[in-house]
Amino acid sequence: MTYAIRGGFKALLLTWAAILFVWRVLAAYDHVRRGDPDLLLAFPLAVIFPALLVLLLSLMPAARSREGVLMRIGTMVQLCLIVMLPPVALYLALGLPVVFLVVELFETRVPAAIRDPLVRMAVR
To answer: Is residue 51 helix, strand or coil?
Structure first.
């Protein structure tokens, strides 16, 4: 049996990433127009790379375990947060292993009555 991210949930994550990308493009343009090129210089690593990773994670084939798909979803959300919150992006990037720990704790410690309906919303 294989598991994948539900189409609607995947579309939501990709739409969120695209909105954040456009928002950061507009912010970089505004800063450049005011004479501060810092946001534009940081743009490739702070915005393009995480957005590209979100896209690549969404294109990955189905996984053999539910945990694998949940880790992909958690990583995509973390990458969107990195794009959205530039002042704490480094801390979020360094805290990426916490996503895997949270997924593992979610799968092993949360009662099935709570866990299974939540997982069904995002994973098929």
So the answer is: helix
> pLDDT tens, 66-78?
999 999 999 999 9
How far apart CA 62 and CA 43 sit, in angstroms, is 31
Q: What angle is formed at CA 61 by the lines to CA 55 and CA 66, rounded to 5 degrees?
A: 100
CA dihedral 20, 21, 23, 28 (to 10 degrees): 140
Q: Rounded to the nearest 5°, which phi and psi values hold at 65?
A: -125, 155
Question: Is the Cβ–Cβ distance between 71 and 99 less than 8 Å?
Answer: yes
pLDDT band (50, 70, 90) for residue 1: confident
If residue 74 lies in a helix (H) or strand (E), which one and from where to where?
helix 66-84
Cα 86-90-93 angle, rounded to 5 deg: 110
Q: Is 123 helix (H, G, I), strand (E, B) or coil?
A: strand
SS3 26: helix
Q: How far apart are CA 106 and CA 96, in angstroms?
A: 16
> pTM score, two decimals?
0.90
